[in-house]
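Why this split exists: single-chain examples teach little about how molecules sit against one another. For that reason, every record in the complexes split bundles all components of an assembly together and asks for one structure covering all of them. Below is a record exactly as it appears in the raw files.
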Amino acid sequence: MSGEVNAQAGFPAAGETEIAQSVRGAFSCALDRRSFLKCALLSGAALSICDGAQPLVAMPLPAVPQKRDDSRFTVEAKFYQKLQNQKIKCKLCPRECTVGDKERGYCGVRENHGGTYYTLVHSRVCAAHIDPIEKKPLFHYLPGTLALSLATAGCNVNCKFCQNWDISQVRPEQVPAEYAPPKLVADLAKQHGCPTIAYTYSEPVVFSEYLMDAADAGHETGIRSVVVSNGYMQEEALKTAYGKMDAVKIDLKAFTESYYKDVVVGALKPVLDALVTLRTMGKWTEIVYLVVPTLNDSDAEFRGLARWIRTNLGVDVPVHFTQFHPEYLLKNLPITPVPTLERAKAIADAEGLHYVYVGNVPGHPAENTYCPKCHRVLVERVGLTAKQVLIRKGACPFCGQQIPGVWHA
Amino acid sequence: MRWRGGTSRRHFLKNCLTGVAILRASGKVPLLEASEQGTAAGKSRVVIARDPQLRDAGTTVDSNRMLKLLDRSVQAVFNLDNPTEPWKKLARPGDKVGLKMNALGGRGLSSNLQLIEAICERLQEAGLRASDIVIWDRDTDELERAGFHVSTGGNRVQCFGTDRVGYEDELVTYGDVGSRLSKILTEHCDVLINVPVLKDHDGAGITAALKNMYGVIHNPNKYHPNGCNPYVADVNMLPEIRRKMRLTICDATTASYEGGPGYKPQYAWKNNALIVSQDPVALDYIGWQIIERKRAEQGLKTLEAEDRAPRYIATAGDAQHQLGTNDPKKIVVVEV
């Protein structure tokens, strides 16, 4: 799943107060998962305008609650293969779940109904915020702008450090959600001054059909789309779904298969393959590496990662080494020491990568973007806020060095 | 509660509706401790009770015969003559008893209605209030599709799915498992009686006692890789499950030997049996053998040959888990 924190209970970051204020301006109140639709209802701004929408404040459930009607969220999946005996094989992610009738895949959000596979989370939004794009983090994509950020339930891996496990590691019916069809999402983004829709928080791989439709709806009104993903996806699905994205952030969670097997419950190679595919597709891509003390913080891993990126993706791909905070099933480890992050950056710098950042450490100088030629500050950041953007026409204003990224709306 | 299909026992319905227990417990009987489960006297007893005449001319299970079949099997587990006494060893008046059934297979292959009905009747005869008994599984809609009618509140046997009350916020962990538990288990059950169905399972090999506990956690989809091993064993080690589990009454009246866990009529057979034990590992081992025999009879490969032998059974019996035994030398099969 995405490493981006959804709940406001997540770790604080510099500039958060200002950001919260800006969010309040857009939605009348700060939006966390539980209050999202309550706010929308109160403001009349968003999803409660949909038929049958209910605020998410009706807990606890009454003694005999009404039956759910999930039909509006249920759409035939795009990436699967029919098998004998009403079974299917999911072709969305490398796990390739074989799913019997009335069963679900590993992600928990796709179900086989009589040999036809369905996503249960189309337009089923369980988390929505207006975030600075820096929170994704995307540092070379429209700095200083906002993204209407949303998620559905579900994930195709099970990271032991997941910050958003309360939405990623649940079935859709276990978390309050609201109906947010693609056009509504696009309209909301426009209405609230967001040039971008971001699919994030849980794992967008599992709601690919929805993000594709929302991206199409957004593009029709001039709104772009970005995805924050683990990249654990089959090539065809990746090309089809993320082909509609304007930028991609991939959580490369480690550089060893053993870590992916034991901590992520996935595999490394398909993620590396996905990064190469994205590069081949020409998608603007940034990489986050969450540094977990003792588990993926050796010099050898940092060096191996940096060399692989240099060789396979090039030196201009931004890499963010971010600080781990104990959560979910990894509460026994400490917060990543800042010197560890700085060591990772030093190794990656030494290997020749041009844009290496330290993340989740508000105020750290490695949050800024520096010109790789003249070393002047080009984008000054504090926490999640881009305080100053000096890049002009995609280049350093001091020495003219081209700075890769998406800089203009 | 109301039952669908006109199969209700008159006394049962009366008791459910009035909430009056038929009999009060005459005195305190020591309850079985969790540590007593399964391996008392060094061997585990697995009772297989059969009744070839269980069904009438059609396919409906006869309620009276089911009650007798249940009595035979449970009495054999406890070596008791009186049909009510075993239930007094399982729960005391005032206890809240959960019957964790399996409703995934719809009407064709879910825990049998008449069996559940018979268990409720005996529990009430043992002094439990109807309203202290809850029939449950993960999803209310699935319960209804299996022929049960939702019942909440009042002086009736309760029947609803976890979707109606949700899961605990707190994660509980053991081994490779980290899950939220159904609030039905944590808030509505002091005692758990497991009422699974004997079925083939495409991923796990078979599903019976141990795997039925996947219906207690919020994230079972995360624990199907690698033939559900070691996850099934780990789930059963979660303290709240292990502490409350008292008995497994596996419904093998209709079982499946292929194509599971969903209901495929072509792979189901009328086995007309119950498999009962306090050792879920031994019960699953015996259930596995029954399915293998049926597969051989049908000319199918063994589960091992299909690379889906239920390895989680051995894991559940290993030194780390000790949930019971899968060693045939330590299992006594009693056929009644």
